[in-house]
Amino acid sequence: MHSVFNYNTLQAKLDRSTRTIFVELSRSKNDHSINMEMLFELESLFAWLTNKVEIHSVFITSEQTQTNLFSSGYDTTNIKNYSAKQLEKLTEKLQKIVQAMQYLPQTIIVDLKKGAKNIGCELAIGADIRIAHQECQLEFNHNKLGLVPSSSGMSSLSIIVGLTHTKNFLLTGKAIKSPMLLNSGFVFDSYSDFNREDTINDLLGSIHEQAPVQRIQTKLGAFDLERTKYDQSMKVEKQISKASFITEDWKNIKVDLETSKDDNEFMQAKSMSYVTKLTLVKDDNSPDTLN
Fold first, then answer.
1. Are 249 and 263 in contact (CB under 8 A)?
2. What pTM was computed for the model?
3. What is the CATH number of the domain that holds 8?
4. Which of 19, 156, 212, 229 matches a 20 to 30 Å C-alpha distance to 78?
């Protein structure tokens, strides 16, 4: 395989045998948490891929770490220092990237490995196909961080798995194990430590064998079937996202969510009744509540 870009947070290599770009998230020390630099580099890569119809597939995974996660999502060590404007910019960039993935001419596969959290899960939503280790666990734990899913974590997720599964995933924040991910349709196939390479090669080989024009037409046609619903739900999702920043609750999270026994000092719901009303009436022409 040949390296095609020199990035700081990504590794990108071309496999000519299946015409696949292999992309690895490469922030190993942070369990591949997503920051603005990574999003800018993904945006650059996807812009380059827009006209590269000779490339058939994009396989996105992450470098090996001790946890073997695809992405830990938000960097919980640094997020406490983010301003509302910084979080808004990161959210908007991720929204654009997830949407761009659905318009690219290549078939995009994400390998979730043994798991992902919050916006790591949302990045994977942009893929056409998702695979995972048989021990994979996903956590849509945005609410535990004082945030909300806002980069297709409500809109596209409900299209993929349905409203019931979406509510179960988002409103509990519990770890979703591989059998449920497979049954819900969020994950297409799972693998073990012993057959991962065979599973990947078989999948990429099947995509490579397809007629290129018809493969692209099928991908875009399938997305068009749900585009109206997607556009409407993304508008609502963006409104809720902006309203959620008002609380600045993410500044009060406990850094170690797994071991902390203290309650996070989040704003009480009774103090936010006016914000709930705001999300129902605010449109794109309304004043920016973050100013």
1. no
2. 0.88
3. 3.90.226.10
4. 156
